[in-house]
Amino acid sequence: MSNENLRLARQVKNDEFYTRYEDIEKELIRYKDQFKNKIVYCNCDAPESNFIKFFNDVQVEWQIKEVLHTSLKEGVSYDSPKALELLDKCDIVVTNPPFSKVRNEFLPLIERSGKQFLFIGNLNMATFKEVFPLIRDGKLWTGYTHPKEFLQPDGTYKKFGNTLWWTNMFVDKPFTLNPDKKYYGNEDKYPRYDNYDAINVDKLADIPSDYSGVMGVPVTFIEHYVPPLTNRGGIGSEYTDSEKEQMIKTSELTDDTTICDTLSPLAYNKNLRSRERERAYFCRILVQAYRHEHVLGDGTNLGQFEVNGEGKYK
């Protein structure tokens, strides 16, 4: 066996987690109309993959033009010449890539290709320097569901707590956060960072509805945030003007959210107990309420948010 084949074999062994058919179906059904007349490429999937089984089952009904696939099992890495040739040919990439390769190799390759994509990854990817600019610039956002359980080669299942779908395809989901907490009068509950003009918010449920400045919120905020179609970098060009207009009408978030173009420095508060500073959940995304067009039941204006950057406690 060649050195390259040995490397590929090790990669398969370490990153082989198979997606359940029902989890694929639950997510992909939301994009049904977007697959019409498209060439789909599953670039990390062997013929027995549930992705291939699913697309074979729906190809005629969904009017999918063609379904392509390659995999490490077949000796074809997603960045091999053959895979790149198929990538150039396809319209949409759909897969569950090797978890260890997503942020540094797989995502940059797929994003540079200019293709639409839908793949499974880790929520914590949002905080990495290679990934966050894509979210900030409207080139990457989360899908609808959270696949949690994956089949391993030995027949057992492995559970992950923070896996979800990442995409640049059209997603129409409502902004489900409805903050009802108050900042003014409760300033002591929202400590300010020492090196950045922002307040810290420990939980999404604690986001104040009366504060319009920058605030550091948990990374799970990204799950609730979808940029409007008009702000998505390079996405949507394949739709006609009438289709875009209809998408804008049906999206509850369009025209209310945006991504700004600044990335914050490391943010921290030295007065917090050291144990708290060291806990992983203090990773923060900096956001800002910049509009006040949504009104809560008590008459309070609720601003939408722009993703301003990322911050971590030291």
Order of neighbouring strands in the sheet with most strands: 3-2-4-5-9-6
Q: What average pLDDT do the residues reach?
A: 75
Domain count: the total is: 2
Q: Which stretches of 5+ consecutive residues score pLDDT under 50? A: 1-10, 233-240, 242-269, 272-282, 290-306, 308-314
Give the C-alpha Rg.
Answer: 21 Å
Can you walk through the features of this model?
The chain is an alpha/beta fold and 314 residues long. The protein folds into 2 domains: 3-168, Rossmann fold; 187-225 and 255-311, no CATH class. It contains 8 helices and 16 strands. It has helices spanning 3-15, 21-28, 50-62, 81-89, 102-113, 132-136, 241-250, 274-278; strands at residues 18-19, 39-42, 66-69, 92-95, 116-122, 141-142, 149-151, 157-159, 163-167, 199-200, 214-218, 258-259, 284-289, 294-295, 301-302, 305-311. The strands form 4 sheets. Strands 3-2-4-5-9-6 form a 6-stranded mixed beta sheet, with helices on both faces. Strands 10-11-13-16-12 form a 5-stranded mixed beta sheet. It has a 3-stranded antiparallel beta sheet with strand order 1-7-8. The chain is elongated, with a radius of gyration of 21 Å. The N and C termini lie far apart (46 Å). 36% of the residues are buried.
